[in-house]
Every structure is written in structure tokens, then in C-alpha cells.
Amino acid sequence: MKELITKRGYTILSSLFFFIAISVISGELIFVTISMFLFSIFLVELFIFLFSSTELEKIEVVRKITKNRLFVGENLSIKTTLENNGLRTLGLLKILNKIPNELEAIKETNNYVLNLSPETKVELESEVKAIQMGKINLGILSLGLFDKFGLFYKKREIQNDDFVSVLPNIRTARGLIDSHIQLGSLPISTKPDPLGSDFSGIREYAAGDDYRKIAWKYMAKSPNQIPKIKQFDLDKKIDVNLIILNNKYMNDGKIGKRKLDAVVQATITISSVVNNAGGKFNVIFSERNKPVSISGSTYELCNRLHQIKADESLNTETLINFSLTREYGPSIFLFIIDSPFPENIDIEKFTRRTNQDSIISIFILDTNSFIKENNEKNEVREAREILLENERKHLQKQLRYSQTKNLNIELCQKDNIVRRILDKFTQVQVLMA
Description:
4 domains, Immunoglobulin-like, Rossmann fold, elongated
């Protein structure tokens, strides 16, 4: 009955029972008669609705989306077509499914259909805006049938596999990159010719390496035929490894403004800088407690990183060790980590030295810049202020301790992650030149 009678129906039914009880107690026959008459109308309407609701399964529902892939900030139209293949006209129909949290309705849409006749089609369209990256399931489509008085309803759920891939916006922060280039801190193009210098040796193949450098003859002669890469004396390309320690706290923040969203957006931006400068850019993160390394063009990284999630089973030590053992020469390691109050950064894990030509930089996320809210009740605001103050002290304590270990560490807020990393990347370029 809970899924058959609406709130209005329960209110009227409760009122009828109350009216009947008072009439019986008071002995007023005329009121008892009126109450029973109204109750009989209620039952008749229920039987009519139950009979007509069998036609709900005969409605064909088709949902189409205008885009399967889009960037954060772009719009998407969802069109739902209802066709009555039954023999009866159905009264009030309503699309009941909610829009996923990663999408935001741009304007109010009409989700109601009144008196859908047999062999008739009706199209409902809604426009939404993508506000958070990810592979988003549009969810089960629910269709509700109501009687003309709004007393009863029946719901039908339609399974579907509609997914939308929302990618981080590769155009974001482009102006910041251009300003660095204009100031001369980043080269416009310094890509070396991989075949324009003397051969110096063979090394292991790494994902993203230039295929022109593969030592095919060496690979053919080896017993396991594992790809090897030729190295050249004048090949000055430096590996840049950005490691995202995507623990459970990376989900802190509002929809579309989480720590993870800001970190991925920064990663996409930095990748375009490194690729433009002729370097090799690797992104390392955890996926189901397993280290994953990806590389390639900015578009390839964008396509892969939009599905990254906060890994609650992340093993920090495993990910750090995996990252620091991947170097094949001079390398830059950029670690983005998050350890809000009361979690501490295990500094000792970063003190393991790589070769003398490599540099490690650590970027800590300032939780306060992601979770601070203004429109709250006084008691909630006071509790949050205490938490924020604890967080500030916690971060300062970790920064002071890190400095005693001579670690290169920076504090990043929500709006300056890209600039912090770009500034550090510029300094590292000068040091490794």
C-alpha cells in the first residue's frame, strides 16, 4: 500500500476514518452515511486505477542523449519519448528519475504527460550541465502513473545502460600557461630529434616512449622479446612524474569542486606544459590498491584520468616506492598528497633518495580551502570553525616538521594548485638545465 497510495491519498483516507469514528461515537447516522459514501467513492477510484495501471507496462520508453562525451561545463540534452501501445488512455504520467549529482539542471522542465492516448507519442526534453568529471550513469528511468485526483500511483522502473563520459576541461588554465611562456620561464618548443644524436645504449621500454627509438633487432634476438629503447647522447629529455596519492580524503569538497577534480585539472594543465617543452610526462595513481602509470598526449591523459576515483584502500608506501623506482635518468617527481586533520604525513617514506640528478617536490592540499562554507546555522558554523582551526594548526605542524627533513614541500589551496606546480616546475627546469 505504501507504493500505491500517495501522501494526499493517505491524508484523505485518514480523515475519512477519523470522521467515521467520530460519527459512530456521536451516534449521528447522517454523518456515518456521508462518511461511508465518501469512502465508497475512494474505493471505486482505487479499483478503476488498479485496472488502468495494467496498461503502464505497455508504454514504450526511449531515452536519447545528444552527447556521449563532453567536457566539464558543457551542456547536454536528454530526450525521453513515451509511446502508448496499449488500448486505454492513461491519465497523468510523470518521469520520476532524478538527475545524477554530477549533472545540474539548467532550467525547469515539464516531466508530466496528461491523457496519453493509444498509439500516441510524447517527447520530453531536459537540458543539463556537466559539473563534475567521471563516467556518469544516468540511472534507472522511473515512470509514475497517477490517478486524476492524485490519490494513487504506480511506479515502473526501466533499466538502461546510458553512460556519459565527462572529461576535465583541457582549456582551463590555458591563460596561465601562456603567461609563463610569455615571461620566458617555459620554452615554447624544445622537442629534441630522437634520431639526431649519437647512440649511447639500451634501456627498458616505458609506456609513452617514441616508437622510433625501439631497438627492434635487439628485441628480436632476446629470448622473451621484451621491447627495449635506444638512448642517445644528446637526448636531454627529462621525465616528469606526477604522483596523485588519491586517498579517501580526495572526495572532500562540493560536487565538481572536490580535491580530486582540482588535482586532475592541474595534472591535465601540467601535462600540456611538459609535452610542449619536449619532456615525457607520466601520471601515477592508485586504482583498487594497485599502482597505475599512464602517459601520452594531453588528450590521452584527459580521456584516462576522468574516471579516476578516490581509493579508500590506497597503500601510500606502495605507491611511493613504485613511483621512485621508475626512473631511467634525470627525473622530476611531483607528489600531490592529502592528509587532513588528524592524519599525518609519513615523511620518512619520502626521504628515500633517487639518483642525484632527480628532484622530489611534495604538494600538500589545504583542506580548509575545499570545505569552508558560509551559509550555515550558528552552532554548525562554530563546530566547523573549531575543525578548521585544528586543520590550520595541523598543516603548519606538518610543514615545520617537513622542513627539518630538508624536503621540498609546498602548501596548495583550491585555486592555486596549477600555479604552485608551474612555479616549482620552472625552478626545477633551471636546476636541471
